[in-house]
């Protein structure tokens, strides 16, 4: 590069840098936030204090969401939001992912009665802020990811009339917070890192409206029968609990007063350490949707089950099953079975024999070597079969006998498209979508079948 050229380049660079600095100043000094019809957006702007919002164009508009997440806020001072007081709006303020350890008592002065949601996850609060006591319409309070040590009873009593969604991290709790019972309107409860192994059966007393419970990362050896008092519970999610394995399949402590929780229809169970399928059916006899993944599960004991007619969708992904558990056949109403990423090598004649209503099956990412000819004999309702990323080298004959089949996925297999596939001659593929390519030629499998086999060129 000549001297002249490099000087010209430097000039361009200076202009470029100058415009960056100018842009930067515009962004952070005059107004770090952007505005839309319902949000003041100030996420990730490196803020160390609550900025003055420019409401010039929004004097009569409800800016419902105030997004201050992912900044460098450490405290929220008195009167931080008085600017927003004139309009009768309800506000949801997002403070997640800052380093807030202090919220002054009058931080929300002027809008306290209009606060609907406070997202305070992943900050540095040690207690519930007194400032929320006067938020008589507070609906959602999320404070998980803070080093909270206890739940102040007088604050809990005040917010208990309105809060319906609540999350908290209990890592530093010395004892169970019985103050939870003040939240009698609660419908959604998320509890992170419960440090206890057992709970008193009355731990959830009073929470009769809770429909959704999330237990993330507890020291529980069994899921305590305290959940049995949650009479409205319809969805339960249990993740990252590393000691459940000790109880084998008896993960749920039997209910002491009621026999079961008949309203639970959805159960999700992931990243736990659990070799065994848990005893969910006795405690949730009406469960319809089961989703499990990444528990390291290997065993599902048939003798534990009776025929069951409620489960319609069953996901069992990223587990360690090396064959299809025969107890699956007790789920007589099953319509959707998802078994991706297990260790299944063979599919045998009777593996799915009881599943007369099965419509969708997914066996992606299993090291399947073969599927017997009668494997889907009783699954006459099947419309979608997914067998991608397996070790299959041929199209299993059994799929040609599925009368309702609409979609067959065979992607990323080593399917050898030779006249060996001629056994598929009588298979009418014209109304079936087949995804996947021949191993050697990359020709689409359905093309091969049409041009070679059906056309009689083999
Ligand atoms: C506030 O916004 C108005 C209109 O969008 C703009 O004209 C004005 O310069 C802004 N004020 C400041 C201090 O940024
Ligand atoms: C916040 O306001 C209250 C009442 O006006 C006052 O007692 C308190 O000292 C103030 N806090 C700070 C940090 O200024
Ligand atoms: C604010 O709005 C609520 C409901 O939208 C209403 O009940 C209340 O009277 C309003 N308050 C004022 C001062 O306008
Ligand atoms: C958060 O604030 C505390 C003081 O309250 C400080 O010790 C800590 O280093 C801060 N953490 C980060 C990630 O800035
Ligand atoms: C618990 O899990 C580990 C593997 O994570 C396994 O080796 C062990 O045998 C399991 N214990 C029981 C009681 O199932
Ligand atoms: C499901 O199975 C459990 C135990 O195996 C049984 O108690 C329950 O009644 C069954 N539910 C239905 C709807 O069949
Ligand atoms: C299978 O599906 C049919 C039609 O939806 C339904 O009538 C029948 O009860 C189902 N069978 C079972 C075992 O759930
Ligand atoms: C499988 O289907 C056959 C005939 O359709 C039926 O007689 C048999 O009972 C079915 N098996 C099971 C376990 O449902
Ligand atoms: C194949 O199926 C299509 C659509 O279902 C039908 O129109 C066609 O006649 C069938 N072909 C043969 C040879 O049966």
| Whole-number count of domains | 3
CATH first level of the largest domain: which class? Alpha Beta
Strand content: 15-25%
Radius of gyration: 29 Å
The helix/strand order is HEEEEEEEEHEEEEEHEEEEEEEEEH
Distance between the termini: 66 Å
Keywords: Leucine-rich repeat, Repeat, Signal
Signal peptide: 1-23
InterPro entries: Leu-rich_rpt (IPR001611), Leu-rich_rpt_typical-subtyp (IPR003591), LRR_5 (IPR026906), LRR_dom_sf (IPR032675), LRR_TM_domain-containing (IPR050541)
Topology:
Blueprint: H1 3-30, E1 34-35, E2 39-41, E3 65-67, E4 75-76, E5 91-94, E6 102-103, E7 115-119, E8 140-142, H2 153-159, E9 165-169, E10 188-192, E11 212-216, E12 235-239, E13 266-270, H3 280-283, E14 289-293, E15 313-317, E16 336-338, E17 346-347, E18 360-362, E19 370-371, E20 384-386, E21 407-409, E22 433-435, H4 445-454
Parallel strand pairs: 2-3, 3-5, 4-6, 5-7, 7-8, 8-9, 9-10, 10-11, 11-12, 12-13, 13-14, 14-15, 15-16, 16-18, 17-19, 18-20, 20-21, 21-22
Antiparallel strand pairs: 1-2
The structure holds 2-acetamido-2-deoxy-beta-D-glucopyranose (9 copies).
Give structural notes:
The protein is an alpha/beta fold. It has three domains: 30 residues; 160 residues, Ribonuclease Inhibitor (Leucine-rich repeat, LRR (right-handed beta-alpha superhelix), Alpha-Beta Horseshoe), CATH 3.80.10; 159 residues, Leucine-rich repeat, LRR (right-handed beta-alpha superhelix), CATH 3.80.10.10. It is 11% helix and 17% strand. The chain has four helices and 22 strands. The chain has an 18-stranded mixed β-sheet, with no helix packed on it. Helix 2 links the parallel strand 8 and strand 9. The longest helix has 28 residues. The chain starts with a helix and ends with a helix. One 2-acetamido-2-deoxy-beta-D-glucopyranose binds next to helix 3.
């Amino acid at each position: 590069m000549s001297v002249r050229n490099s000087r010209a380049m430097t000039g361009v660079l200076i202009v470029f840098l100058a415009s960056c600095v100018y842009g930067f100043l515009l962004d952070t000094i005059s107004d770090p936030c952007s505005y839309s019809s319902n949000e003041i957006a100030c996420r990730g702007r490196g803020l160390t204090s609550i900025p003055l919002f420019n409401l010039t164009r929004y004097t009569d508009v409800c800016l419902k969401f105030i997004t201050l997440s992912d900044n460098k806020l450490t405290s929220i001072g008195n009167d931080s939001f008085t600017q927003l007081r004139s309009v009768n709006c309800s506000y949801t303020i997002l403070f997640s992912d800052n380093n807030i350890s202090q919220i002054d008592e009058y931080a929300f002065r002027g809008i306290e009665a209009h606060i609907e949601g406070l997202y305070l996850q992943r900050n540095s609060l040690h207690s519930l802020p007194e400032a929320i006591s006067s938020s008589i319409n507070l609906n959602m309070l999320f404070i998980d990811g803070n080093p909270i040590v206890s739940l102040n009873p007088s604050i809990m009593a005040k917010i208990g009339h309105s809060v319906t969604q609540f999350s908290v991290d209990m890592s530093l709790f010395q004892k169970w917070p019985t103050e939870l019972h003040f939240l009698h309107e609660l419908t959604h409860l998320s509890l992170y890192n419960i440090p206890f192994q057992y709970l008193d059966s009355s731990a959830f007393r009073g929470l009769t409206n809770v429909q959704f419970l999330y237990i993330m990362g507890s020291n529980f050896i069994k899921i305590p029968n305290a959940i049995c008092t949650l009479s409205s519970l319809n969805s339960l999610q249990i993740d990252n609990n590393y000691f459940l394995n000790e109880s084998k399949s008896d993960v749920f402590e039997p209910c002491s007063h009621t026999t079961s929780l008949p309203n639970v229809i959805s159960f999700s169970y992931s990243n736990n350490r659990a070799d065994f399928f848990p005893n969910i059916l006795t405690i949730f006899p009406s469960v319809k949707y089961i989703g499990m993944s990444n528990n390291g599960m290997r065993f599902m004991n048939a003798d534990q089950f009776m025929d069951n007619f409620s489960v319609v969708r069953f996901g069992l992904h990223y587990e360690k099953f090396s064959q299809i558990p025969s107890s699956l056949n007790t789920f007589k109403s099953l319509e959707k079975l998802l078994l991706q990423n297990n260790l299944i090598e063979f599919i045998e004649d009777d593996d799915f024999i009881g599943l007369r209503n099965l419509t969708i099956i997914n066996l992606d990412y299993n090291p399947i070597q073969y599927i017997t000819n009668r494997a889907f004999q009783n699954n006459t309702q099947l419309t979608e079969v997914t067998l991608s990323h397996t070790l299959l080298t041929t199209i299993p004959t059994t799929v040609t006998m599925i009368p309702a089949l609409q979609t067959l996925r065979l992607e990323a297999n080593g399917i050898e498209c030779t006249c060996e596939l001629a056994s598929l001659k009588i298979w009418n593929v014209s109304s079936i979508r087949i995804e996947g390519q021949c191993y050697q030629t990359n020709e689409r499998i359905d093309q091969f079948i049409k041009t070679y086999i059906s056309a009689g060129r083999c």
